[in-house]
Amino acid sequence: MLHVHRVQKSYRKGGMLSREKKQVLHGISFDWMPGECLGVIGESGSGKSTLARLLLGIEKPDGGTVRFDGRNVADRKARLGKISAVFQDYTSSMNPFYTVEKIVLEPLTTRYGRHFNHHGKIDSLLFQVGLDPAYRVKYPHELSGGEAQRVCIARAVAAEPQCIVLDEAISSLDGSVQVQVLDLLKDLRKLYGMGYIFITHDIEAAAYLCDRVMFIREGRLEEMIGVNRLKEVQSPYAQHMLKMVIR
Amino acid sequence: MMFLKNVLKDRVAAASFAILVAVMTVGIFAPVFAPHDPEEVHMELRYASASWEYWLGNDHLGRCILSRLIYGIQPSVLGVLAALLLSVLLGAVIGFVAGYFRGKTDVILMRICDVMLSFPSYVMTLAVVGIFGVGLEHILMAFLLLKWAWFARIIRTSVMQFSESDYVKFAKVAGVGNAAIMRKHLIPAALPDIAVIASSSFGSMVLQISGFSFLGLGIQAPKAEWGMMLNEAREVMFSKPEFMLAPGLAIIIVVLAINFLSDAFQAAVDPKLAASSRKERSMAEAAAGRLERKEVA
Ligand SMILES: Nc1ncnc2c1ncn2[C@@H]1O[C@H](COP(=O)(O)OP(=O)(O)O)[C@@H](O)[C@H]1O
Ligand SMILES: [Mg+2]
């Protein structure tokens, strides 16, 4: 279980010596249950990516805690096999000097050690995300957007984490490819029995994939609701965002 | 070694590499290769042109130009190269630490760099020579003091840019340690930038050394150095321009070789530019083509 308790985050405005701070997250609390797909919906600049970095443990909150099965996610060892990520910008998500094989291998060797026997594993991961084994020797610049994001997904599931944080993972893709990738995520979830935290500004995509969604506005949690009851949202902000889609 | 092979597939790079290795070997074993004593004066041979005994002729004191050229490799090429490598190394370490860890470390290191960079370089060199005395090693030391800060700043910017990328973020999430991230993701990415700044400052350093030698602060008079040979030839630039040729060409050839090699290096590390391994992959691509057509983006 991922337990988020009253996390706060602010960034300095201007240079290192400036005193002025901008609060990006204001005391957000929620729980993510194993196997669940939780959607995080908010407009651009509402602090979604900041929240993602805190959940992933690569930045520390100014206040509050993020714990995975009781251990602080900022501890590198506590994250092994628990949590992974897919980012929005697939071009900068992969080391341009690495082949697909090396990219997918990175979390595997980190978790299981350098002498991990990976041969069948890479092929089966590529197969699971709908790519031919011939892609192993390709470089990132030789991939299309959809293929690149598939490689990133293969890399994220490689070490079989319990939870994958997807920060706008489909937002840079074309419409039809978006649906393909969403379907892929659904299939993988069944296959591995893992859960997602699906961060997006797109309510439709969240409703398609998620069990529960939460609305974030200016760094505050506005509302949390099950997807099947999405029409009953109470907060004006969530109602407004919903209306924009239905119209 | 595999990598060196890749670089040397480029014919120009291979030639540059061969030239540099040859120049360095000749420089290190100068007494073996030089046909004459470089400081031996023959006033009767002043400005003599090339002959079987003196292949490149004799200078204004009748000294063998070829021997002086060979003895000049040590200060002009090897000395500068050593100072350059040391300052790049120091700058790289500081730049990596500042660019990767950021925060207070970065602020403090960059203020120190600013202080170093705020001294005009000639004043700084003069100060070092004033304190430690005249000599090539002190000028090289001044270079080291001056240049590291400049390298550190450039390398920091480059490291910062790469350490913000999502693949470094993913590596952190996956639990890869800081040292491994630097080794696997940041150093390979920053190396081409480092090669470019290092090779581009090599030429200017050779010329600066000769400037200081001209002022009498570097290499002392009877000893040979390429820049000083140029300056000696300058006196007869209009009446006997051919005397500029030997030291001038030597500097140009070495500087060009270094630049070509750094270009080839860049091309070899960048998979987008590396055409060499294309052939091996084209078969894989043909097999993957079927999937590629399926997708739009
Ligand atoms: N590293 C940072 N330094 C300073 N400000 C930041 C940083 N990261 C995010 N912010 C600020 O926090 C706010 C929220 O950003 P972000 O979390 O990226 O929003 P979202 O992903 O929802 O679009 C923005 O106003 C942004 O300027
Ligand atoms: Mg974002």
Automatic annotation (TrEMBL), chain A:
Keywords: ATP-binding, Nucleotide-binding, Transport. CDD domains: ABC_NikE_OppD_transporters. Signal peptide: none annotated. One of its GO terms (molecular function) is ATP hydrolysis activity. GO terms for biological process: transmembrane transport. It holds the Pfam family ABC_tran. InterPro entries: AAA+_ATPase, ABC_transp_ATP-bind, ABC_transporter-like_ATP-bd, ABC_transporter-like_CS, P-loop_NTPase. Gene3D superfamilies: P-loop containing nucleotide triphosphate hydrolases. It comes from the Bacteria. The keyword Nucleotide-binding applies. Residues 2-243 form the ABC transporter domain. Belongs to the ABC transporter superfamily. This is ATP-binding cassette domain-containing protein. It comes from Paenibacillus nanensis.
From TrEMBL, chain B:
PROSITE patterns: ABC_TM1 (PS50928). InterPro entries: BP-dependent_transpt_permease, MetI-like, MetI-like_sf, OppC_N, Staphylopine_ABC_permease. GO terms for cellular component: plasma membrane. Residues 73-262 form the ABC transmembrane type-1 domain. SUPFAM superfamilies: MetI-like. Keywords: Cell membrane, Membrane, Transmembrane, Transmembrane helix, Transport. The chain crosses the membrane at residues 12-34, 77-101, 122-146, 243-262. Its main location: membrane. It is found in: Cell membrane. It is a multi-pass membrane protein. It comes from the Bacteria. GO terms for biological process: transmembrane transport. Belongs to the binding-protein-dependent transport system permease family. PANTHER family: D,D-DIPEPTIDE TRANSPORT SYSTEM PERMEASE PROTEIN DDPC-RELATED (PTHR43386:SF1), OLIGOPEPTIDE TRANSPORT SYSTEM PERMEASE PROTEIN APPC (PTHR43386). This is ABC transporter permease subunit. It comes from Paenibacillus nanensis.
